[in-house]
Task: inverse folding
């Protein structure tokens, strides 16, 4: 099977792309809150995140504007392990990911519970650079890059899907690169 999704071109580097300013990371004040429709809402410190079970995965990254990058090695905490900690209620079907600076994205839990979906803090054996979303970013390899929120600070479990930053601006909420779900019209 072709490894490059339709109408993508391969890049050797890993471009930096985001809206707005890069937030400053202060380990003392930084926290990661997971709440919404869950039995056990949790607020983690940065060390609290590092203390959770660590998972590694290698995946390709596809940005909706047309570049793809192969073989990024991410390490971090599986979304499913975070879900296990907070125990989503039976009526939770989606989660909204909120980032420092106001960026948001949302996904169905069925997509987020896949084993390759991580809150990553290591990229290619080095601490994740702030430009690429350090200290913590979501990685959703099966979706266009706008689902992989950088500078994650909060996860809210919801019953209905809340459109995220790009989804509100005409991008597809499906975001499947193999089906070329780029736009919502
Ligand atoms: N917080 C935040 N995360 C974001 C974005 C953003 O604007 N803000 N842009 C998204 C988009 S469109 C892409 S393609 C990837 C790019 O990740 P990179 O800069 O590490 O290549 O980040 C995603 N995550
Ligand atoms: Mo993107």
Result:
């Amino acid at each position: 099977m072709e490894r490059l999704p339709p109408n993508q071109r391969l890049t050797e580097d890993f471009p930096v792309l985001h809206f707005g300013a890069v937030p400053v990371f202060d380990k003392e004040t930084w926290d990661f809150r997971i709440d919404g429709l869950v039995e056990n809402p949790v607020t983690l410190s940065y060390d609290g995140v590092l203390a959770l079970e660590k998972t590694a995965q290698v995946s390709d990254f596809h940005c909706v504007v047309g570049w793809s990058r192969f073989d990024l090695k991410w390490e971090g905490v599986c979304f499913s392990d975070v879900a296990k900690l907070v125990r989503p209620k039976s009526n939770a079907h989606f989660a909204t990911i909120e980032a420092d600076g106001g960026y948001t994205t949302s996904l169905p839990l069925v997509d987020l519970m896949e084993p390759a979906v991580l809150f990553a803090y290591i990229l290619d054996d080095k601490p994740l650079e702030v430009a690429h979303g350090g200290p913590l970013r979501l990685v959703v390899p099966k979706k266009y890059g706008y689902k992989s929120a950088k500078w994650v600070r909060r996860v809210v479990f919801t019953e209905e899907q809340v459109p995220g930053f790009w989804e509100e601006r005409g991008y597809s909420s499906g975001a499947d690169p193999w089906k070329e779900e780029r736009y919502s019209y």
About this structure: Residues 64 and 134 are 21 Å apart (CA to CA). The mean pLDDT is 97.
